[in-house]
Amino acid sequence: MTDKINVGIVGATGYTALELIKLLLRHPNVQITRITSRDESHPHLSDVHTSLRDRLDLRFEHLEMDRFPEGVDCVFCCLPHAASAAVVGQLLDANLKVIDFSADYRLNDVASFETWYGVEHPDAARIGSVAYGIPELFREQIKTSKLVANPGCFPSSAILPLAPLFKNGLVQSSPLIVDSKTGVSGAGRKANLKFHFPECNESITAYGVGTHRHMPEIDQILNRFCGSETEAVFTPHLVPMDRGILSTIYLQRCDGIEEDQLMDCLNEYYRHEPFVRVTSQIPSTKDVSGTNFCDITVRSCRGTTIIVSALDNMIKGASGAAVQNFNVMHGFEETLGLL
């Protein structure tokens, strides 16, 4: 029988932390031992996440580095950007493995991070050397890492379908348009007027046009698979649903390449991957809701290749990917807690 890994969750009050806890509670090799928040009252888990009543008897505590590492082997860090990197180094110094949900370690260089996120990086020395947490593409690096940068939700929906096509020289790197729709949970749990029900119901709106911070992440990861620099034009849209991402990607095939070759490439690349489903049908967010699947298909129209992908922004786009990374880091079956 495998000994259980003791897990701590830093910043456990949000939606992604809730989904993470649900997944870990059904993982046979995990024991959740610590959860943190900044709440001075130290509430019980079930007072913050009422759906977890009678599931886990823990109270939130403040993150105190002289106490927190006790009884913890691995940490899921669910803090915002910059706040996360400020503590990750201390967690690593305490000999803990860390899966970081923030954007702090996803980009290749400090200058890009500080340009797009507008803050000085608290742990700049590690930038560019941290494994990027898409196991389907970076499994070998993740296996031996103590720190993994969990990917962004929108980038996952674009990188998973595009990386194999770029790697095999089947599509052109420019122009590249990524048009994504997402549910309101992507904005997090903190109150914000534009995400109130009367504001977003029965309405679709674009946001972060030309300025969204996931754009450099898409570019920098895809550049590892492409023979030339990519510059994705990425536009997200808020739609009135709880969860899910549907991305429609427009680009050009290389000369002499047909649509069926793209499907063949994706089918072959992901043939043995349990969480990527290449399908002849058009994916929808309902098909993947509450799962760690990413569904992908390819179409053509008037010489333009159209790729459609769907995933759950809180599972494959966040907490499910984190558990998948956890499994890879610890040598477990990759589907544990996820199927």
From TrEMBL:
State if Calcium is listed as a keyword. no
Gene3D superfamilies named among the record's database cross-references: Dihydrodipicolinate Reductase, domain 2 (3.30.360.10), NAD(P)-binding Rossmann-like Domain (3.40.50.720)
The biological pathway it contributes to is: Amino-acid biosynthesis; L-arginine biosynthesis; N(2)-acetyl-L-ornithine from L-glutamate: step 3/4
One matching Pfam family: Semialdhyde_dh
Give GO terms: molecular function aspect only: N-acetyl-gamma-glutamyl-phosphate reductase activity; NAD binding; NADP+ binding
What's an example Gene Ontology biological process for this entry? Answer: L-arginine biosynthetic process
Q: Name one GO cellular component term.
A: cytoplasm
What is the first-listed, main subcellular location in coarse terms? Answer: cytoplasm
Matches recorded under InterPro entries:
AGPR (IPR050085), AGPR_dimerisation_dom (IPR058924), AGPR_type-1 (IPR000706), NAD(P)-bd_dom_sf (IPR036291), Semialdehyde_DH_NAD-bd (IPR000534)
- Places the protein is found: Cytoplasm
The question of whether Oxidoreductase is a record keyword is answered with: yes
Q: Which HAMAP family match?
A: ArgC_type1 (MF_00150)
The record describes the protein's role as:
Catalyzes the NADPH-dependent reduction of N-acetyl-5-glutamyl phosphate to yield N-acetyl-L-glutamate 5-semialdehyde.
Similarity section = Belongs to the NAGSA dehydrogenase family. Type 1 subfamily.
State the protein's name.
N-acetyl-gamma-glutamyl-phosphate reductase
Name its species. Mariniblastus fucicola
Which gene is this protein's source?
argC
